[in-house]
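Here's what a typical entry looks like (Nickel pincer cofactor biosynthesis protein LarB):
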Amino acid sequence: MEQRAIRALLEQVANGSVPVDEALLKLKMEPFEELGYAKLDHHRGLRQGTAEVIYGAGKTPEQIAGIVDAMRAGGQETILITRMSRQSADAISPSHPFVYHEMGRIGIVGNLPEPDGVGTIVVATGGTSDMPVAEEAALTAQALGNQVTRLYDVGVAGLHRLLSHMEEIMNARVIIAIAGMEGALASVIGGLADCPVIAVPTSVGYGACFGGLSSLLSMLNSCASGVSVVNIDNGFGAGYLASMINHLEGKHA
């Protein structure tokens, strides 16, 4: 159950529309649900502010569909499914509002929430080949309630392409810089922006890139301050972290 749902339940108790015992029963049933192949963590949203995300890789289409059914039955409005195949997407019940984004291998059950983050998250890529990882990051951020601006194919091989978007870079609350090859984009953006930069190395590149290791090491050794790095191809991790940063001011207001 999300924090918003808990708050709404407590307000219903306060105004007398929901009996105390009924509310207590709902909360008692929340910690986790045993599905046999998964233990669904209903308290994730209460603890962390974000409901459990379904990692699709390695799960059967039937398992993913079953988890979605249980989450919807538990009142979850928006469900994010990462690394989802088309086959798994086809197994989702037609009774659920659902959109599959093939580029980012992301499935979203329910409607995207209205953005409630402090500012805008910019997602920038070195090249078009980095777009699958970028879409995973961007859609994750959107599903978590953030305004997202996409700047694709603005890598250092044509630096003028990036510099033509200085307004978006300067106005960003968080920037996710995604690049393969030598991974230089993160350092360049880190030297321009006054906000946190989350670098995502991708496995895009020729043989000597070692499946993304070259860009990972370049980003870890960035001379620009304020650049942090997530794992190779981890668009989800970058989008999630960017969302946490973008919600910090509202959390403590």
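The domain at 120-252 is CATH 3.40.50.1970 (Rossmann fold).

More examples are in the samples folder.
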